[in-house]
Description:
The chain is of the alpha/beta class and 368 residues long. The chain has helices at residues 19-26, 45-51, 58-74, 76-82, 95-104, 111-125, 142-148, 161-173, 176-184, 197-217, 227-232, 234-245, 286-289, 292-301, 303-309, 320-341, 346-363; strands at 9-13, 32-34, 130-134, 153-158, 222-226. It is 52% helix and 7% strand.
Amino acid sequence: MPAKPVGPIFIVGYIHTGTSLLKTILKRNPAVWAVTGETHFFQDLGKIKTQFPDLGDPAVRRDYLLFLIKLAYLGNKRAMWRRDEWTLADFGLTDAHLDTILAAAADINTYEGLFARVNDQLTGFAGKDVWVEKTPEHVYYLNQLLRHIPEARVVELVRDPRATLASRKLRQTGDEWLDAKEAKESLEVDRQTNYDPLLDSLMWKEAVSAARETRRTKPHNIITVRYEDLVGRPNETLQRICTFTGLAYTGDMLEVGWVNSATQLKDGGAPTQPRTGVSTAAVEKWRKSLNDDEIYLCQKTLRAEMRELGYEPIATGFGAKAKAPLLLGATAVNLSRRLAGDRRSPERARDAFGRIQRRLLKNLGIQR
């Protein structure tokens, strides 16, 4: 095992696959400094370049580095969209720290390279060896990420697609935990378009395909971990992750609190298991959460990928196949509403539409 971590760690994967859990585990390692929240850096890079158009201008460059500091400590929502007021002192930094960052970044002239260098410096200020960043959607930008940060190590989380659908479906109805989370983050969620079994299955498929391509071209930079293995065989799986990233494994990394209490409560509100350690409570909940037609559609769409990743299909009721076309009719409506709803970032909407379009064409055999 290397004496020190190999490079920065990026946690990616389709949403609701356990990325938050893994970040919580890794940041318990004494060598790790964790970027706050999700940066969505590569996803929002087009908008970022518009805000900071000329890195050759010293004033623009300084403002950009200040933005990257803010992004690292506040996360994307607060840094880019809510524009919270802040000072360096809020993060325990001084003008001397900023001068050090400016000097350390003097030889870099790319947005991506500066993103990495700023986080390297913040990691050093914290007395840590390596930083970890978790943005699930970065799975779609791995070529760009590894081109500019070639020493990075990527951990892709995958989860039974039926379980991710069930988690998305829960977000459609909401509950006490979700209501509190959305109020805290000032989110306005269109729950009627937040779940679609076909669209979400296709996006899961596109995420898995993107990571598969990176494993083919850059096998030393990426490792794939199943959520079910992380919670079912946590010690063995975490040791594998630590070996890959160069972190020293310690068993207390697994002594984490609950990450998402919405998935870990009984109907009456009592905890199903102790509130420490890694729980397997959410692994099979999809069997009760999804209808037969939703399961049928998911398994039909993702048959090859499920087989590849070891997820066995189950038998569905007689009427599931007959009811599935009814779900397809709602997909077009949900797609238009979902894309129209992301007005803050049209670039994101175009990217999402492009991924869905590519996947639909591939499934129809029109595009390879």
